[in-house]
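During the no-cost extension, the postdoctoral fellow (Dr. R.K.) reprocessed legacy sequence entries with the updated structure-token encoder. One reprocessed record is reproduced below for audit purposes.
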Amino acid sequence: MNLVQPIKDKELLKEIKDYLKESNERNYILFLLGIHTGLRISDILSLKVKDVQGWAIFIREQKTGKPREIKMPSELKRAVRSYTKGKPKHEYLIKSRIGKNKPITRGMAYVILNQIAEAFGLERIGTHSLRKTYGYHHYKTFNDLALLQTALNHNDIKETKRYIGIEQDDLNELQRKINW
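Re-encoded structure tokens follow.
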């Protein structure tokens, strides 16, 4: 089973952010939104400039139909403020270069993430990797699966553990201890 993985190494995350900040501001914002909010790629791509004007993002999730409020951490807010300066409020945040005012497609987001993966020697990266990265680091920082389950809008904790790769990490750790 070839599931996409979170990016677990914090130093690598910093390197990717620095690389994107220098090479492509739109892709930098896409990456930051994914790793700092835990939003699904479809919800990130639907965001407009007006949706990120305050400290919180208010959306109705496309997949679940549930309303969500996500407070932006300082790093994300600073980047978004700089990126949106002078942009019309109705403009899509992750705007395609094709057409008047359309977001990039999910397929293009996948291409962007795979270009990053190739540049940094990563495997098993996809559009869910950003959300999984958020979940993984949220768990490692706060150690609260119930809260993370709510943040990711999962139905049960087992789903959340499996999603962020914690279950696999636990299994791998046990395997390393086998000595018979």
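The longest strand covers residues 56-60. The chain has a mean pLDDT of 93. The remaining legacy entries will be reprocessed before the final report is submitted.
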